[in-house]
Specification:
The chain is an alpha+beta fold. About 15% of the residues lie in helices and about 30% in strands. It starts with a helix and ends in a 6-residue tail after the last strand.
Length: about 270
């Protein structure tokens, strides 16, 4: 019997896929067997406070560098500053946690998801083994409906927290170019990473460098990564991201175009989930 046309199509697809992926990573590569979206939820104990306005986002972006984005979707003010034990010098910017409270009469006991966008360096944040300094909005979200103000009046709460996957449905990873960037120095804020939410490594490649030669970027502060090249950089730039928890790698090919501008935002076509 002669082979069916569908077999030829499948073989052709596999050959094309192998060819292109040989020269350029083209899909997420899972190098560790961890996945926050599938592991069992593990709860730990912490304490929580809140800051800023009762219905606000705590601050305008805080030490992670997200700016006014914290008060609009997908963050929607559901954000938190974090103590040193979980902030890890900014490496955990963008990580997502579920938090809940049960020991206050106004607690609903239902978990809510928050994103790390700020650092809380002193006081209870430094002395507690784990401390969440939540936005007023996020703190109130742990309350029974209609009792948000009563819960905020408690001041300090004992809570339970768990690391979870980030979910920015409909969003792709975004790169916001730092205002201090120029032809020899490039810095970028990385936003909306689903899954782990935080990054272990970031690399940049100039189009003129071909299929190799990825240049290591360093964490500048918060969620901002930089490359001080010492010589002129030649766009467009591809950016390779490695997630902190699972070790998954993504490549945003030529995401920073020729003629890029400091302060501009460029959206990729991909995300981790």
């Amino acid at each position: 019997m002669a082979p069916r046309p569908s077999i030829y199509l499948a073989l052709a697809y596999m050959i094309i896929l192998v060819f292109f992926c040989h020269f350029e990573p083209c899909f997420s590569i899972k190098s560790k067997q961890f996945n926050l979206s599938t592991i069992e939820t593990h709860w730990s104990s912490a304490r929580a406070t809140w800051y800023g306005s009762p219905d606000g986002a705590g601050s305008d972006g805080g030490s992670c560098g997200y700016g006014n984005a914290v008060s609009v979707p997908p963050f929607s003010s559901m954000v938190t500053g974090i103590g040193p034990s979980l902030y890890k010098s900014g490496k955990e910017c963008g990580a997502c946690y579920q938090v809940k409270c049960t020991k206050n009469p106004s607690c609903s006991g239902k978990p809510v998801r928050v994103v790390i966008t700020d650092f809380c360096p002193g006081g209870l944040c430094a002395s507690d083994s784990a401390h969440f300094d939540l936005s007023g909005t996020a703190f109130g979200a742990m309350a029974i409906a209609g009792q948000e103000d009563k819960l905020r009046d408690a001041g300090v709460l004992e809570i339970r927290y768990s690391r979870v996957a980030c979910d920015y449905s409909g969003k792709t990873i975004t790169f916001h170019v730092d205002l201090g960037s120029n032809s020899n120095y490039f810095a970028v804020l990385v936003e909306f990473e689903e899954g782990d939410g935080d990054l272990a490594d970031v690399y940049l490649k100039e189009a003129s460098r071909g299929s190799g030669d990825w240049r290591t970027m360093q964490q500048s502060w918060g969620a901002v990564w930089k490359l001080d090249a010492g010589s002129e950089l030649h766009p467009p730039f591809s950016i390779r991201l490695t997630s902190q928890y699972s070790g998954q790698t993504l490549v945003a090919k030529n995401v920073i175009p020729q003629g890029w501008k400091p302060g501009a935002t460029y959206r990729s076509l991909l995300n981790y989930l």
